Structure formats: C-alpha cells, structure tokens
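User: You have something folded?
Assistant:
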Amino acid sequence: MTDLTFSFRPVDPLRDAELLHSWITHPKAAFWMMQDAKLEDIERAYMEIAADEHQQALLGLRDGVPAFLVERYDPVHRELVGLYEPRPGDVGMHFLTPATDTPEHGFTKAVITAVMAHLFEDPAVERVVVEPDVRNKAVHALNAAVGFVAEREIQKPEKEALLSFCTREQFTEAVSA
C-alpha cells in the first residue's frame, strides 16, 4: 500500500458539497456528528471554513479523483481554545475516508500517513493535534501508527475527546519503523 500517492486541493464548497454530503452523512461517518445534515448544511459549513483564516478543508485526490477529506485548523483559534496549552507550530487536523463497498487493505493508513506528511511539508508545523471521540478506537489505532501519543481525555461541547499529539520527529520515527 506504500505505492499510493495522493495530491490535495482546497474544497470547493458548492462544487464538492454533494460528494461531501454523501460521505459525511453515511453511518460510517457517525463520529463527524452530521448524520442528519442536509446538502445546504454541508455547503454552509464548508463555506464557513473556506472564509475562515484559521481553518482549511482539503480533498485528498487519488489519480485526480476525490478519495478523502482533510480539515486543518489553528487550535489557538478553533476547536481546542481553552482546552489545552497550545505551542507555537501546533496545527489541528481531522480526516475522513468515505465508506466503500470495496475496502482496500491499508488504504486508511496510507491516507493518514499522506495527510501527516502533507501537514509537515509546512516548515512552521512542529506538532499535529487531534481530538477524536474517545469511543473511536479505529482512529486511535491509526493515530498511534503514525506517531500520535494520547495525552488525556478532554470534554468538548459536542463530545468526550482523546487529546493526542504527534511531533515531526514522532511521525518520522513511526513511519520509518
């Protein structure tokens, strides 16, 4: 699966809304907490992200075809404000691989590896911060596989989350092992 290569492009809120709606409202995406979202809700949410200097939504492309979603955010201003002590160089991240009828072994690990490599291409990024739902054991395992270390559980308004961090060094060590 290491032969997979991906590229990234910004989400176009109007053009991509239908695709994102199908991904985000699928039962597999329950931890995104948007199961009942209407198409307009997705358009609005991604227009807000596009207009926000502290957030960015990207589509991960495989051979030019949308294959996954990435959200990058500044935890000083979004998601984790007041819930931990941010450091210079911190960046927050969410990612979603869509449900499929033909699962590909190792695909999601290849995606999170590509996402982390993409984030660390920015020399200003020193550490990636994630806050998945404490019940999302699958993503905890994926996070650990690319070097994340869980710090503690935190209470966010919408969920009990597992605050985890991955430095550039931890990522490099995890993926080269």
Notes: The two ends are 15 Å apart (CA to CA). The chain has one domain: 6-176.
